[in-house]
Design a protein that fits this description.
Layout lengths: L7 H7 L5 H14 L2 H13 L12 H11 L1 H4 L3 H6 L8 H10 L1 H4 L6 H12 L2 H13 L5 H7 L5 E5 L4 E5 H10 L1
Antiparallel strand pairs: 1-2
Helix pairs in contact: 1-2, 2-4, 3-4, 4-7, 7-10, 9-10, 10-12
Length: 183
């Protein structure tokens, strides 16, 4: 299936998909397709799908929000604080928020709460290897010195699946961090 051929309203359905790679890919295409006032409406809609009231929790919504936002910075400016604050919501797939912060780093850099401080706080709180991988990715893109994190987790044997921009890579957290350190 070619996601590029789908309308944005259909692409959103793939943000619910059990295949994680499809979630990432659909979010990227959604970000490229949705522009202007439509971007604002889609971001609002995706935030709605993260709330209890919607009754239709969308696991990939943070990915969609970030991709639409990074392609529509003038629109995302009004949502960046709320987006970074999603890290405090335990019901949200926070590794996707961390990834999205990295993808939209130029826009969220000056958000409140401070994304660097919030990501570091959540690494301590969450402790999940996948979250740590995406958080370190985001911290590095934000320009933070992650050498302390790399040193701390360099011997981790935990296996993570990490989206590298084209595919899901299954590797040890320590091996992934070696790559991050070399970038």
């Amino acid at each position: 299936m070619n996601l590029e051929e789908l309308k944005p309203s259909k692409l959103i359905t793939f943000l619910y998909h059990p295949d994680e790679l499809l979630r990432f890919k659909a979010a990227e295409v959604l970000g490229r397709k949705v522009k202007g006032e439509g971007a604002r409406n889609f971001i609002l809609r995706l935030f709605w799908h993260l709330s209890d009231e919607s009754g239709a929790y969308c696991i990939g919504a943070p990915l969609g929000i970030a991709e639409i936002g990074r392609n529509n910075p003038e629109v995302f400016e009004g949502f960046k604080n709320k987006y970074v604050s999603l890290l405090d919501d335990w019901e949200v797939e926070r590794k996707y928020v961390a990834y999205g912060i990295g993808r939209a780093a130029e826009i969220v850099r000056d958000a409140y709460p401070n994304p660097v401080e919030k990501l570091r706080e959540k690494v301590e709180e969450i402790g999940d290897a996948s979250f740590i991988a995406y958080a370190i990715f985001a911290l590095k893109v934000l320009g933070d010195d992650v050498s302390d994190m790399i040193a701390r987790f360099r011997k981790s044997e935990e296996i993570v699946e990490f989206y590298d921009g084209s595919e899901m890579v299954r590797t040890k957290l320590s091996d992934l961090l070696v790559e991050v350190a070399e970038d």
